[in-house]
Write a structure and sequence with these properties.
The complex is a heterodimer of chains A (266) and B (335).
Chain A lengths: L5 E10 L4 E10 L4 E5 L6 H9 L6 E10 L2 E2 L5 H7 L3 E4 L13 H13 L3 H14 L5 H5 L8 H14 L4 E5 L7 H18 L2 E5 L3 H7 L2 E6 L2 E7 H6 L4 H9 L12
Parallel strand pairs in A: 3-8, 3-9, 6-7, 7-8
Antiparallel strand pairs in A: 1-2, 1-4, 4-5, 9-10
Helix pairs in contact in A: 3-4, 3-6, 4-6, 6-7
Chain B lengths: L1 H29 L4 H5 L6 H10 L6 H12 L14 H36 L4 H14 L3 H15 L22 H7 L3 H38 L2 H9 L3 H38 L5 H10 L3 H29 L1 H4 L2
Helix pairs in contact in B: 1-13, 5-6, 5-9, 5-11, 6-9, 7-9, 7-11, 8-9, 9-11, 10-11, 11-12, 11-13, 12-13
The chains are: A alpha/beta (266), B mainly alpha (335).
The complex binds adenosine-5'-triphosphate and magnesium ion.
Magnesium ion binds next to helix 1 of chain A.
Chain lengths: 266, 335
């Protein structure tokens, strides 16, 4: 299975009877591409992801624009059609502890989505979960399946979430700062794991981060957001060679050190 | 593991009960009011009075009285009721089932009502439904249970007579049941006509008792559900393709129940205490109405026995709540 194109055009999002959070954001993710979404805290990066995934907070709504994904318009769908269209989408969240339900075993949190989306039986789904845990290099996958989240380390939890995200072969995955909550040594491994899986599954990836070093390592193209507006959009090599927008330049200045663009994670 | 915990809590309960017993024993003898004066006509013969004092041991020093009472109580004998002239233990055991069934029914109503309101409010978060739930729970909490009871009697007992306003069952029907748990027993003996009649009698007192607890559960559960729904796992579950209802009920509810159990546990003991007034208002034959009569008659042995019974109930409720956290939270279960 290969990735699908995502076209967000002129997307505006506002709090009901309140301020506008996104002002006409447009971005394009080509099939199989890794697209970075950078900006400072509060810029609206997660809001873009939440629009795409259909999980806007209460009182926040889309006020204009379009989201076309895999040939289908997502804005304006009713809740049921929206859920169905979401079958090709997945999320790797930021905080692997709060992203796992503390009172359910890993196995049920991995297999529920496969049973729902792929129509697998419990034993088929469990077998697939096991295979996915192997693929994310978890030691003792059988044991992990029957544990509760609090019995795993942060890195293991994030591996479980990555395995779950890839398990239904989505065409696009939103990764919202997937390494921010992890310690530095684990960050590198997780980043490389996401990169490897994205390549072998040929999934498109919308990679939210505020770390330009991470963008350099993993992304093909990048969109810079500032206060809900797109300030710069370019292939990674181009932008790293010559950031045009003053805000992007400031972002570069604020990043202490970043690796060369295109470099695969060591 | 879990049995050790139960055993430990039960052992801890012993000094608590002993403390309660001493306190009550002293208090009922210090406050004004004389049990013997309540049972004889005014101006009775001094000899008769003295004989009655001796009969109930009230002529001895308070320490001796306590020693005798405690020694008998340790064997399950709480003395004779002065006003009813029956053994306190037997009296309490014959009335306790009525109260337990009322409390269980009321608590069930409260949990179902409060749970439904909380889930409904969260399903409509940020919209009219949530505001309506907040308004209703706020209003319900501002009125105490016995006022609800009186209002129900006027509204659904007198103006629109939907429910019987007194007693536990229709006295013209012979029950012919073996135990005093007549609701439970009639249900399992498939005598559902009797069950329905008992439920009709219990409806108004149970709802009056349930409203404050239900409103409290709705409040606390709704705010902890809101907290859970903002957690990443709830968002992730919706990304996986599950509906809001599914996420609320199958993912968030159990985690939200943990703080709710601890925060509403105290309110549940208030519900048990509330039976005292509510049973009196509805002439319901449980230990609550028995307690009021005992106090009115200054029936010292009965008051002591009843207060200890309530203390045991409170301790058992707290033990159950304690165990239910452990059941709900796997992090505690393995700790
Ligand atoms: N639940 C919410 N309700 C209302 N406004 C929100 C909510 N969540 C976020 N916002 C607002 O939306 C704006 C964008 O937030 P968003 O979470 O998309 O930022 P971000 O770029 O992801 O930042 P970060 O790097 O901190 O994750 C912020 O101004 C924030 O205050
Ligand atoms: Mg964010």
């Amino acid at each position: 299975m290969s990735g699908a194109a995502l076209d967000i055009t002129n997307l505006s999002v506002a709090i009901r009877r309140g301020p506008t959070l996104l002002h006409g954001v447009s971005l394009h993710v080509a099939p199989g591409e890794v697209h970075g979404l950078v900006g400072m805290s509060g810029a609206g990066k997660s809001m873009v992801g939440r629009c795409l995934l259909g999980i806007l907070p209460a009182r926040v709504g889309i006020t204009g624009g379009s989201i076309r994904f895999a040939g289908q318009e997502l804005v304006g769908l009713n809740e049921r059609d929206r859920r169905r269209a979401g079958a090709q989408l997945a999320l790797i969240p930021q905080d692997p502890l709060s992203a796992l339900n503390p009172s359910r075993r890993i196995v049920s949190q991995m297999t529920d989505v496969m049973r729902l989306r792929l129509g697998l039986t419990q034993s088929e789904a469990t077998a697939r979960a096991l295979a996915m845990l192997h693929e994310v290099h978890i030691r003792d996958p059988e044991g992990v399946l029957h544990r509760y989240p609090h019995e795993l380390s942060g890195g293991m939890r994030q591996r479980v979430l990555i395995a779950t995200a890839f398990a239904c072969e989505p065409k696009l995955i939103v990764a919202d700062e997937p390494t921010t909550a992890l310690d530095v040594t684990v960050q590198k491994q997780i980043l490389r794991l996401i990169r490897d899986l994205q390549r072998s599954h040929q999934t498109s990836l919308l990679f939210v981060t505020h770390d330009l070093g991470v963008v350099a390592k993993i992304c093909n193209s990048v969109t810079v957001l500032n206060a809900g507006r797109v300030v710069e959009q370019a292939p990674v090599a181009e932008m790293f060679a010559a950031p045009k927008d003053p805000y992007t330049q400031a972002l570069f200045a604020a990043t202490p050190r970043y690796d060369q663009p295109g470099g695969v994670v060591a | 593991m879990i049995f050790r915990r139960i055993l430990l809590r039960l052992l801890q309960a012993i000094p608590t009960l002993a403390g309660v017993a001493i306190l009550v024993f002293v208090l009922v003898r210090v406050v004004p009011g004389d049990p013997v004066a309540m049972m004889i006509p005014p101006g009775a013969d001094a000899d008769v009075v003295a004989r009655l004092y001796a009969q109930y041991g009230l002529d001895k020093p308070i320490l001796t009285q306590f020693g005798l009472w405690a020694a008998a109580a340790a064997h399950g004998d709480f003395g004779m009721s002065i006003s009813l002239r029956q053994g306190v233990t037997g009296l309490i055991f014959s009335r306790l089932p009525a109260t337990l069934e009322l409390v269980a029914f009321a608590a069930t109503v409260a949990v179902v009502l409060g749970g439904a309101l909380a889930v409904f409010g969260i399903r409509h978060a940020g919209r009219f439904g949530e505001g309506a739930v907040d308004a209703v729970t706020g209003f319900v909490l501002s009125v105490p249970d016995f006022l609800w009871g009186l209002a129900f009697i006027v509204a659904f007992g007198v103006l629109v007579p939907l429910f019987p306003i007194s007693g536990r069952n229709d006295p013209s029907q012979a029950l012919g049941l073996a135990s005093d748990f007549i609701l439970t027993e009639s249900f399992f003996r498939l005598r559902w006509g009797v069950t329905a009649d008992i439920l009709a009698h219990m409806t108004m007192p149970a709802i009056a008792l349930a409203l404050p607890l239900g409103a409290m559960i709705a409040r606390v559960l709704k705010s902890s559900l809101a907290e859970q729904m903002a957690q990443d796992y709830a968002l992730l579950s919706r990304v996986k393709g599950f509906s809001r209802w599914h996420v609320i009920v199958a993912e968030a509810l159990r985690n939200a129940a943990i703080p709710t159990v601890s925060l509403t546990g105290v309110q549940l003991t208030f519900l048990v205490g509330g039976t005292v007034l509510i049973e009196k208002i509805f002439s319901y034959p449980g230990i609550g109405s028995l307690a009021i009569d005992a106090v009115v008659n200054r029936d010292l042995p009965l008051i002591q026995g009843l207060i200890l019974t309530f203390a045991v109930l409170f301790i058992l409720i707290n033990l159950l709540l304690d165990l239910s956290y452990a059941m709900l939270d796997p992090r505690l279960r393995h700790a």
